[in-house]
Amino acid sequence: MNRKLLLCLMLPLAGYLNSCQSAAPAGAASSAVVTTKGKSLGEIALEESKVPVRPGVPGKVPFWNEEAKLFIYAPAFDYKVLQGAVKYLYTVVSVRDQKKFSFEAKVPYEALSPIWAQVPVGTFSVQVVGLNAAGDSLGLAGKGSFYRASPFNGPYHEPTALAYDQSALVALEKLMAEKYVQYWFTYKKPDPKYLNYRYPAKIHSALVIGAITYARLKPNTPEAQKATELARIVADFMLDLRYKPGTAWEYFVPTYYGVKLDGKKAHMNDVNNFTMMGVDAGYAFLDLYDHTKDVRYLEAAQRISQTYLKNQMPNGSWYQFVHHATNKPVADNIAIPTAVTNYFDRLRTDYGVKGLETPTKKALQYILDNPVKTFDWQGQFEDVYARPPYKNLSREQACDLAIYLFNNSKNNPGHVALAEELVRFSEDQFVIWEQPRPYATDNKTPGRNSKDWITPSVQEQYVFWYPVGRSAGIMVETFWHAYEVTKKPLYLAKAKSLANSFTVVQQAHEGEFPTFFTKYNLPLWLNSAVYPAKVLMDLNQNLNKLPKGLL
Fold first, then answer.
1. How far apart are CA 232 and CA 218, in angstroms?
2. What is the pLDDT of residue 262?
């Protein structure tokens, strides 16, 4: 990215970082992380876990964790101020052994940092009572029950059964051999028995990218030729499927194909468009153009960007769900457009596409003015209806922005602090290093119950609380970028530990990268095999560039 443009994009962020420095509550733990020589990675992680993630302050900093059920990092809660209280007594009780931990603070919304490192993994209760000057109770300011999640105590699963690149190759070979993939060669259309083909912008695009990735791993071989043929067949089907010229979202590959649901899933309808999903198809077309130099695919990718420009709102973003022909919103939720800013970056940087600088700046400004300030990192999924603020958080857009900031931090070192905060939020709420919170314990389907999960893993979103492979792949990539910029060994260990889990899960699933990190087979979304395979190959290449002593 050109320096002038980069400065232009980052100036708003610099102002945000300066403005938020005074927002920390009185007595809150410092955001600085201390790494002491001689300590194990687990000891360092435990010490770091005392630092809260964006703690709320009434009237100043929103409390983002109203629906959160677990925490790796010390939480702070939106408990009420009591008239006449001069201090507050915090009491935490571990359900596991009934041990009590307590401390006093001047406010009822202080983070649990003073006792957090002592609280064992498991369910705990917290009660905050207001006290007057004489030390008498003025009543309850707030209470709750939560799960103290395990901080990192790895590395995990070392040594691995397979090198990362070999693990990825095996997973892609398994995918290429699937009947619903081979079906394309005979019929030139999706296999109707594979239900997830009803999401063409997501699943067809992932298959194109997977086929190209496999072809690049097997250069100058018959397998590479066949994989390239597959990518062309699927991509050409996508071209024919696009919304018609003259419609609001012309040239987008449809989000839904043969879908018409009702009730809470009424947004899942052929006429509707999940706007952020256009990026998936764009990346597939760009990857295929890079591999074949067929200009049709580059033109298709550029047309997607032009449709984004046509529909960008004055605030810099787009609605999440709209009618594809009219652009009328299906829900009020506005998208967090990190995917589009990264897509525009690629078009501008790698292909010299003009006219994207100002739209990128507008989209970035929307992100800075909204989720960066509110921490409402709402889930954005085509098969989940849009929720009210904070009701369904996820980690993908926070990770997207963190990676963007890390990648553009060379001339803007102050941006690393926000990037690291986003990484900590994502880990805090969605990474399971070990000892998962009991979940779906009454579910009789093998693999759904948390006792069947393989850890470390990463949960997808609040309303679909399952360990998903693609989610883990995103965190591997995020931790790697954090390490690449900060050089903190703990980030590298976290990236490798999650990557190692893929090789363990793979052994339980006959070589494939399953969608769910469980001991049992559950429905497979092929995009959850493709994306992690690419991430593991990239990680393998990056690790090979490091001095041997760092590994």
1. 17
2. 77
Question: What is the strand order of the sheet 100-105 is part of?
Answer: 70-71, 137-148, 122-131, 87-94, 100-105
**Across the strands, what pairs with 139?**
130
How many angstroms separate the CA atoms of 546 and 551, rounded? 8
Check residue 265 and give its pLDDT: 78
Whether residue 197 contacts residue 527, with contact meaning beta carbons closer than 8 Å, is answered with no
**String of b and e for 109-118 (b: at least 16 CB within 10 Å)?**
bbbbbbbbbe
Cβ burial of 275 (10 Å; 0-12, 13-18, 19+) is buried
Helix 278-292 and helix 295-311, axial crossing angle in degrees, nearest 10: 160
Q: What is the DSSP string of 522-537?
A: -PPPTHHHHHHHHHHH
H or E element that contains 296: helix 295-311
Task: Give the separation between CA 211 and CA 227, rounded to whole angstroms.
Answer: 5
Peptide bond before 120: cis, by omega within 30 degrees of 0? no
Q: What is the CA radius of gyration of the chain?
A: 24
Contact (Cβ atoms closer than 8 angstroms) between residue 282 and residue 329: no
Task: Find how far residue 347's CA is from the centre of its chain.
Answer: 22
CA dist., res. 334 & res. 329, Å (int): 9
Contacts of 33 (CB under 8 A, 6+ apart): 48, 51, 488
Backbone angles phi, psi at 322, to 5 degrees: -140, 160
Neighbours of 510 (CB within 10 A): 10
d(CA 147, CA 497): 22
DSSP 50-70: TS-SS--BTTTB----TT--E
Q: Give the residue from 532, 531, 482, 480 showing the smallest Cα distance to 505.
A: 532
Angle at 482 between CA 481 and CA 488, to 5 degrees: 130
Lookup result for tokens 């609040």: 462
DSSP annotation of 550: G
Give the Cα separation of 76 and 54 in Å (integer). 9
| CA-based nearest residue to 231, from 209, 216, 252, 249 | 209
Bridge partners (DSSP) of residue 516 are 468
Q: What is the SS3 assignment for 544?
A: helix
Q: Is the peptide bond before 456 cis (omega within 30 degrees of 0)?
A: yes
Which stretches of the chain drop beneath a pLDDT of 50? 1-36
Instruction: Classify residue 125 as left (phi > 0), alpha (psi -120 to 50) or beta.
Output: beta
In contact, 492 and 550? CB cutoff 8 Å: yes
- Give dist(CA 336, CA 485) in Å, integer: 24
- pTM equals 0.91
* Helix residue ranges, H only, 30-117: 41-48, 113-116
How large a percentage of the chain has pLDDT more than 70? 93
Residues facing 431 on adjacent strands? 458
Cite the beta strand spans of 453-523 per DSSP E: 457-461, 464-467
In three-state secondary structure terms, 94 is strand
CA distances from 81 to 25, 26, 65, 109 (A): 14, 14, 18, 8
